[in-house]
Amino acid sequence: MTAFDFSLIDRLPSYPAGAGRLLLSAPPAHGQPLLLFVHGAYHGAWCYANYLDYFTRHDVACAALDLPGHGGLPQDATFLHAGIRALAVSVQRAAERLEGAVVLVGHSMGALPVLVAATEMARAPAGVVLIAPSPPANLPGAAALPLVPEDILRAPPGDAEIRERFAGCAADVDVSAIRVRLCAESPQVLNDRYALRVAVNPFAMRSPGLCLEAGLDDPARHPDGQDRAVADFFGFEHQLLRDQPHAMMYGERWESSAAVLLDWYQRTFDRRRRGPR
Protein backbone atom coordinates (compact mmCIF):
# COMPACT_ATOMS: atom_id res chain seq x y z
CA MET A 1 0.00 0.00 0.00
CA THR A 2 1.48 3.37 -1.01
CA ALA A 3 1.42 6.38 1.29
CA PHE A 4 -1.50 8.01 -0.55
CA ASP A 5 -3.60 4.93 -1.34
CA PHE A 6 -6.77 5.13 0.74
CA SER A 7 -8.84 2.61 -1.23
CA LEU A 8 -8.99 0.10 1.63
CA ILE A 9 -11.51 2.30 3.41
CA ASP A 10 -13.98 1.92 0.52
CA ARG A 11 -14.09 -1.86 1.01
CA LEU A 12 -14.79 -1.99 4.74
CA PRO A 13 -18.19 -2.75 6.26
CA SER A 14 -19.79 0.28 7.92
CA TYR A 15 -22.26 0.79 10.76
CA PRO A 16 -24.07 3.84 12.20
CA ALA A 17 -22.48 5.48 15.24
CA GLY A 18 -24.71 8.34 16.32
CA ALA A 19 -24.59 10.76 13.39
CA GLY A 20 -21.23 9.29 12.40
CA ARG A 21 -20.20 6.08 10.67
CA LEU A 22 -18.03 3.25 12.01
CA LEU A 23 -15.81 1.29 9.61
CA LEU A 24 -14.53 -2.02 10.97
CA SER A 25 -11.23 -3.42 9.71
CA ALA A 26 -10.58 -6.30 12.10
CA PRO A 27 -12.88 -7.51 14.91
CA PRO A 28 -11.61 -7.98 18.47
CA ALA A 29 -9.56 -11.08 19.11
CA HIS A 30 -7.68 -12.66 22.01
CA GLY A 31 -9.48 -10.43 24.49
CA GLN A 32 -7.25 -7.47 23.58
CA PRO A 33 -8.57 -3.91 23.14
CA LEU A 34 -9.64 -2.62 19.75
CA LEU A 35 -8.03 0.56 18.36
CA LEU A 36 -10.71 3.07 17.36
CA PHE A 37 -9.20 5.78 15.14
CA VAL A 38 -10.81 9.24 15.08
CA HIS A 39 -9.74 11.72 12.39
CA GLY A 40 -9.10 15.45 12.59
CA ALA A 41 -10.48 18.49 10.76
CA TYR A 42 -11.25 18.18 7.02
CA HIS A 43 -10.47 14.45 7.08
CA GLY A 44 -12.43 11.23 7.43
CA ALA A 45 -11.87 7.61 8.41
CA TRP A 46 -10.05 7.25 5.06
CA CYS A 47 -6.94 8.96 6.43
CA TYR A 48 -6.26 5.87 8.57
CA ALA A 49 -6.28 3.38 5.70
CA ASN A 50 -2.55 2.64 6.12
CA TYR A 51 -2.89 2.19 9.88
CA LEU A 52 -5.92 -0.09 9.52
CA ASP A 53 -4.00 -2.33 7.13
CA TYR A 54 -0.90 -2.29 9.33
CA PHE A 55 -2.62 -3.15 12.61
CA THR A 56 -4.80 -5.81 11.00
CA ARG A 57 -1.61 -7.47 9.69
CA HIS A 58 -0.19 -7.32 13.21
CA ASP A 59 -3.24 -9.06 14.64
CA VAL A 60 -4.59 -5.97 16.43
CA ALA A 61 -8.32 -5.31 16.15
CA CYS A 62 -9.05 -1.86 14.71
CA ALA A 63 -11.76 0.39 13.32
CA ALA A 64 -12.08 4.01 12.17
CA LEU A 65 -14.84 6.54 12.62
CA ASP A 66 -16.26 9.05 10.16
CA LEU A 67 -17.37 11.91 12.40
CA PRO A 68 -20.66 13.60 11.39
CA GLY A 69 -20.30 15.55 8.14
CA HIS A 70 -17.03 13.87 7.21
CA GLY A 71 -16.05 11.05 4.87
CA GLY A 72 -18.96 11.82 2.54
CA LEU A 73 -21.61 12.06 5.27
CA PRO A 74 -24.17 14.89 4.80
CA GLN A 75 -23.10 18.46 5.54
CA ASP A 76 -26.40 20.12 6.42
CA ALA A 77 -27.32 23.02 8.71
CA THR A 78 -26.78 20.79 11.71
CA PHE A 79 -23.19 20.21 10.65
CA LEU A 80 -22.61 23.93 10.10
CA HIS A 81 -23.37 24.57 13.76
CA ALA A 82 -21.92 21.35 15.21
CA GLY A 83 -19.13 21.74 17.71
CA ILE A 84 -16.61 19.45 19.38
CA ARG A 85 -19.06 18.14 21.98
CA ALA A 86 -21.48 17.06 19.24
CA LEU A 87 -18.66 15.05 17.67
CA ALA A 88 -17.83 13.47 21.02
CA VAL A 89 -21.31 11.90 21.06
CA SER A 90 -20.46 9.88 17.95
CA VAL A 91 -17.17 8.78 19.51
CA GLN A 92 -19.08 7.51 22.53
CA ARG A 93 -21.72 5.80 20.37
CA ALA A 94 -19.00 4.06 18.34
CA ALA A 95 -17.25 2.83 21.47
CA GLU A 96 -20.54 1.55 22.87
CA ARG A 97 -21.34 -0.26 19.63
CA LEU A 98 -18.01 -2.06 19.75
CA GLU A 99 -18.95 -3.35 23.24
CA GLY A 100 -15.51 -4.70 24.25
CA ALA A 101 -12.42 -2.85 25.45
CA VAL A 102 -11.51 0.08 23.19
CA VAL A 103 -8.47 2.34 22.86
CA LEU A 104 -9.55 5.76 21.54
CA VAL A 105 -7.07 7.29 19.10
CA GLY A 106 -7.61 10.94 18.12
CA HIS A 107 -5.62 12.97 15.60
CA SER A 108 -5.33 16.77 15.74
CA MET A 109 -8.84 18.25 16.20
CA GLY A 110 -10.09 14.69 16.72
CA ALA A 111 -8.15 14.55 19.98
CA LEU A 112 -10.70 16.85 21.61
CA PRO A 113 -13.83 14.72 21.07
CA VAL A 114 -11.75 11.70 22.08
CA LEU A 115 -10.72 13.39 25.33
CA VAL A 116 -14.28 14.53 26.05
CA ALA A 117 -15.62 11.02 25.40
CA ALA A 118 -12.87 9.33 27.42
CA THR A 119 -13.57 11.45 30.50
CA GLU A 120 -17.37 11.33 30.30
CA MET A 121 -18.11 7.73 29.25
CA ALA A 122 -19.63 5.51 31.92
CA ARG A 123 -17.08 2.82 31.05
CA ALA A 124 -13.60 4.27 30.68
CA PRO A 125 -11.70 3.31 27.51
CA ALA A 126 -8.84 0.86 27.89
CA GLY A 127 -6.48 3.56 26.66
CA VAL A 128 -6.22 6.91 24.89
CA VAL A 129 -3.77 7.88 22.14
CA LEU A 130 -3.38 11.46 20.95
CA ILE A 131 -1.63 12.17 17.64
CA ALA A 132 -0.48 15.78 17.14
CA PRO A 133 -3.37 16.81 19.41
CA SER A 134 -5.33 20.03 19.64
CA PRO A 135 -5.03 21.23 23.25
CA PRO A 136 -7.92 21.44 25.70
CA ALA A 137 -8.95 24.94 26.76
CA ASN A 138 -7.74 24.49 30.34
CA LEU A 139 -4.20 23.45 29.39
CA PRO A 140 -1.94 26.13 30.91
CA GLY A 141 -0.30 28.13 28.12
CA ALA A 142 -2.38 26.59 25.31
CA ALA A 143 -2.08 28.58 22.07
CA ALA A 144 -5.24 30.19 20.70
CA LEU A 145 -5.58 30.88 16.96
CA PRO A 146 -7.49 33.43 14.82
CA LEU A 147 -11.18 32.61 14.47
CA VAL A 148 -12.91 31.81 11.17
CA PRO A 149 -16.35 33.15 10.09
CA GLU A 150 -19.10 31.02 11.66
CA ASP A 151 -21.79 31.45 8.99
CA ILE A 152 -20.15 29.35 6.27
CA LEU A 153 -18.36 26.02 6.03
CA ARG A 154 -14.59 26.31 5.88
CA ALA A 155 -13.09 25.01 2.62
CA PRO A 156 -10.29 22.45 2.97
CA PRO A 157 -6.65 23.43 2.39
CA GLY A 158 -5.18 23.43 -1.11
CA ASP A 159 -2.30 21.36 -2.46
CA ALA A 160 0.49 23.58 -1.12
CA GLU A 161 -0.79 23.37 2.45
CA ILE A 162 -1.51 19.66 2.10
CA ARG A 163 2.11 19.07 1.11
CA GLU A 164 3.66 21.38 3.71
CA ARG A 165 1.46 20.88 6.76
CA PHE A 166 -0.32 17.56 6.39
CA ALA A 167 1.91 15.20 4.41
CA GLY A 168 5.31 16.84 4.79
CA CYS A 169 6.30 16.02 1.22
CA ALA A 170 8.16 17.77 -1.59
CA ALA A 171 6.52 20.42 -3.78
CA ASP A 172 6.40 18.12 -6.82
CA VAL A 173 4.57 15.24 -5.08
CA ASP A 174 1.07 14.54 -6.40
CA VAL A 175 -1.37 14.95 -3.50
CA SER A 176 -4.58 14.74 -5.52
CA ALA A 177 -5.53 11.48 -3.74
CA ILE A 178 -5.62 13.46 -0.49
CA ARG A 179 -7.26 16.58 -1.93
CA VAL A 180 -10.24 14.75 -3.42
CA ARG A 181 -11.10 13.17 -0.06
CA LEU A 182 -10.75 16.25 2.14
CA CYS A 183 -14.06 17.90 3.03
CA ALA A 184 -15.24 21.30 4.19
CA GLU A 185 -15.20 21.76 7.95
CA SER A 186 -17.68 23.11 10.47
CA PRO A 187 -16.53 26.59 11.58
CA GLN A 188 -17.93 25.84 15.03
CA VAL A 189 -15.60 22.85 15.33
CA LEU A 190 -12.62 24.93 14.21
CA ASN A 191 -13.43 27.82 16.52
CA ASP A 192 -14.00 25.51 19.46
CA ARG A 193 -10.34 24.63 19.05
CA TYR A 194 -9.04 28.05 17.93
CA ALA A 195 -10.75 29.96 20.76
CA LEU A 196 -9.98 27.24 23.32
CA ARG A 197 -13.63 26.62 24.19
CA VAL A 198 -13.43 22.94 25.17
CA ALA A 199 -12.04 22.20 28.61
CA VAL A 200 -11.37 18.61 29.70
CA ASN A 201 -11.03 17.60 33.35
CA PRO A 202 -7.68 15.79 33.73
CA PHE A 203 -8.80 14.26 37.02
CA ALA A 204 -11.59 12.45 35.17
CA MET A 205 -9.09 10.64 32.94
CA ARG A 206 -9.07 7.02 34.07
CA SER A 207 -7.09 5.50 31.20
CA PRO A 208 -3.40 5.08 30.36
CA GLY A 209 -2.34 7.03 27.31
CA LEU A 210 0.22 8.05 24.73
CA CYS A 211 0.78 11.42 23.04
CA LEU A 212 2.69 11.42 19.75
CA GLU A 213 4.22 14.74 18.72
CA ALA A 214 4.99 15.42 15.05
CA GLY A 215 8.45 16.96 14.80
CA LEU A 216 7.62 18.61 11.46
CA ASP A 217 4.35 20.14 12.69
CA ASP A 218 3.19 23.73 12.24
CA PRO A 219 4.74 25.75 15.11
CA ALA A 220 1.78 28.17 15.19
CA ARG A 221 -0.63 25.34 16.02
CA HIS A 222 1.87 23.24 17.96
CA PRO A 223 4.38 25.58 19.61
CA ASP A 224 7.39 24.07 21.29
CA GLY A 225 6.43 22.13 24.39
CA GLN A 226 2.65 22.16 23.88
CA ASP A 227 2.22 18.51 22.91
CA ARG A 228 4.40 17.38 25.81
CA ALA A 229 2.31 19.60 28.11
CA VAL A 230 -0.85 17.87 26.85
CA ALA A 231 0.71 14.49 27.70
CA ASP A 232 1.75 15.66 31.17
CA PHE A 233 -1.69 17.21 31.79
CA PHE A 234 -3.35 13.80 31.45
CA GLY A 235 -0.49 11.67 32.78
CA PHE A 236 0.26 10.14 29.37
CA GLU A 237 3.51 8.92 27.90
CA HIS A 238 4.98 11.39 25.38
CA GLN A 239 7.04 10.60 22.31
CA LEU A 240 8.47 13.12 19.84
CA LEU A 241 8.68 11.70 16.30
CA ARG A 242 11.10 14.15 14.72
CA ASP A 243 10.66 13.02 11.11
CA GLN A 244 6.85 13.01 11.08
CA PRO A 245 4.46 15.59 9.58
CA HIS A 246 1.14 16.57 11.13
CA ALA A 247 -0.81 13.80 9.36
CA MET A 248 1.70 11.11 10.22
CA MET A 249 -0.80 8.34 9.51
CA TYR A 250 -0.38 8.90 5.76
CA GLY A 251 2.88 10.83 5.43
CA GLU A 252 5.71 9.21 3.51
CA ARG A 253 7.15 7.64 6.69
CA TRP A 254 3.80 6.60 8.14
CA GLU A 255 4.92 3.05 8.95
CA SER A 256 7.50 4.20 11.49
CA SER A 257 4.79 6.11 13.40
CA ALA A 258 2.53 3.04 13.31
CA ALA A 259 5.39 1.00 14.77
CA VAL A 260 5.68 3.40 17.73
CA LEU A 261 1.96 3.06 18.42
CA LEU A 262 2.16 -0.73 18.11
CA ASP A 263 5.06 -0.82 20.58
CA TRP A 264 3.06 1.20 23.14
CA TYR A 265 0.01 -1.01 22.60
CA GLN A 266 2.00 -4.20 23.14
CA ARG A 267 3.83 -2.86 26.19
CA THR A 268 0.59 -1.65 27.75
CA PHE A 269 -1.80 -4.50 27.06
CA ASP A 270 0.46 -7.55 26.79
CA ARG A 271 1.70 -6.73 30.29
CA ARG A 272 -1.85 -6.42 31.56
CA ARG A 273 -2.80 -9.74 29.99
CA ARG A 274 0.15 -11.48 31.69
CA GLY A 275 -0.82 -9.93 35.03
CA PRO A 276 1.50 -8.98 37.90
CA ARG A 277 4.72 -10.89 38.37
UniProtKB/TrEMBL annotation:
Domain of life: Bacteria
GO aspect biological process, one term: phosphatidic acid biosynthetic process
Keyword Cell inner membrane annotated: no
Keywords: Hydrolase
Gene Ontology MF terms: carboxylic ester hydrolase activity; lysophosphatidic acid acyltransferase activity
Domain (AB hydrolase-1): residue spans on this chain: 35-218
Protein name: Alpha/beta hydrolase
